[in-house]
Amino acid sequence: MAKFLCLLLAVSLPVALEAAGMSMTMESRGNPIRKVVGLLQNMAKKVEGEGKKEDELFDKFMCACKNDGGDLAQSIADATTAIPELESSIEGSVSKKTQIESDLKSHKADRESANVAMAEATSVRNKEESAFKKETAEGQAEMATTSSAIASLEKGLGGAFLQTNAAAHLQSLLTNQEDLMEDSDRQTVLSFLSGKQSASSPGTDTVVGILKTMKDEQTKGLAEAAAAEKGATATFGALMAAKKKEVKANTRMLEEKLQRNGNLATSIETSKNELEDTKERLAEDSKMKATLAKSCATKGAEHQKSQTIRQDELVALADTIKILNDDDALELFKKTLPSASASFLQIKVSAHAVRSRALRILHSVHHRSAQADFIALALRGKKVGFEGNQDG
Q1: CB contact burial 228-267 (16+ within 10 A = b; e otherwise)
Q2: What pTM value is reported for the model?
Q3: Domain segments of the chain: what residues?
Q4: Which of 250, 217, 204 is nearest to 143 (CA)?
Q5: What residues are paired with 69 via a beta bridge?
Q6: 173-201: pLDDT as tens digits
């Protein structure tokens, strides 16, 4: 028992000193075993402190696993919901854009048709107006000839009138336009104008009456032509107003739908980019979630292993301290210490030398306990956690 306690002291002393990062100089005064116990107790506190810090870091990490995992899960859920909505929105916008483009073609065609109709109507109106003016001018000239003939005949200037250009023009008019009067009346007037009247021919009064009737018809024809021109002008005006309104409406619709078409094109491209980004984010988040889950699971196993190793270290330190604090160990240590004048107490003892000596002593023990075997393993560097460094 005494040899084993000496061995335990020889082992624990360099181990404690190495954990503190220093070598120990034994002095003649004071109890060295108390110093060793103090160092071992400090080691135990340090291990416990490191354990608490590691536990805090582990808790923070697991909290991050929980929170970040929840955020990722929410992001994945949002992306999963958003993708079909974006696809549906894009499909609807594309359909609207197609319809608007069809409407644009229709509006352009309608506007072009209205413009063509106005151009054609304007051309017809111009021809009608030109014809009306020509007809009116001719009608007024014919009526003036008729009026002049009537005035001359009523004044008894029949013979003189027959020698005028007005009589020749009236004769030409009646010859070329058979529809001006009845044929019998026309022949009567032509006979009078030609000077071939006989005693039985109608008199001047009859010719004047026929000419007055013709003048009335001419006046009526001019009035009807004026009325027709007025009606044609009104119809043309109404048509032009309607077509201009139609052109204006189609132009407005074109402008509005061109703008809507442009906005839809921009919206579609924006939605397509958003859809692509959402799909990429979903893939990245899914991959990150899987990686995080694996990392969190691995971290838990690593932390459990670290706790086990640390607990073994604390148990080993506690057992060592308990043995060193035993009364028999203290008494034995006092008996085995050299005298105060021994030079050994002034010499620095290296960990390698003490370890080698401890191994030799340990090998000399014929009946070793499990604790002795554990110490032997530690001295050979086989037990991680018993010492901070392995020397030699």
Answers
A1: ebeeeeeebeeeeeebeebbeebeebbeebeeebeebeee
A2: 0.49
A3: 99-276
A4: 217
A5: none
A6: 777 776 677 777 777 777 777 766 554 45
